[in-house]
Amino acid sequence: MRLVDVGGRLVELHIRRSKRVNGHRLYVRQGLPPELVVRPRASESYIDDAIAMHRSWLERQLANVTEPCLGLERLHLTEAQGRREAHARILLIAQSEAAALGVTFTRLTLRDQRSRWGSCSSKGALSFNWRLVLAPHDVLDYVVVHEVCHLAEHHHGHAFWQLVERRRPKYLESKRWLDEHGWELLAYRPPLEVAA
Ligand SMILES: [Zn+2]
Q: Residue 139's CB: how many other CB atoms inside 10 A?
C-alpha cells in the first residue's frame, strides 16, 4: 500500500507484484482501492514513475467512480419493503415476458447477492437481487427480460443477445447503467426494521 497524492487528495494505492504483466497495469474498481500491478522485481523508482505517469488518469477515474451519485442514502426503504416491491414488479414483468416468448419458469425468488443481479437455472427457476428495486425501472426491466430470455436461450451466444435486443431494443443503456452504478445498489444499507 502506498499513499499517493491525487489532485490534492491522499489515496491508498495497492501495489501488487505479478509475473503476468508486461511493465505495469493500473486498475480502478468500484469499492476497492486502486491497484497498480508491476513485475515481481520492479524497483521503487519504477513504481514512482508509473504512478507519476498515470496521476491525471487516476484523478479522472477516481472522480468518476468513487463518489456515489444516486442519493440512495436518503432513501429509507427497509429490506422487507424493498423485497416486497421488487417481487411484485419483477413477477409482473417476468410473467408477461414469459408469455410473450412462450416459455415458462418454475419459481421466482429474491436474493441479496453481492455479485449478481439475476440468474436462471437449467430447471427454469429465476432469481433476482432485491436491490434492483433501487434502480430506474428500465434497468430492473432489462434484468428481468435478460433472465426470461435465458429460458429460451441458455447461453450468452449471438442468438441470446439477438433475442434480448428484439424484446428491449435499448437494453444496452440499462446494461451500461448497471456497470456504472450497480455498486451503489450493492452499497445501500437499508435501515433496520423496527419491531412493532
Ligand atoms: Zn445472462
A: 22
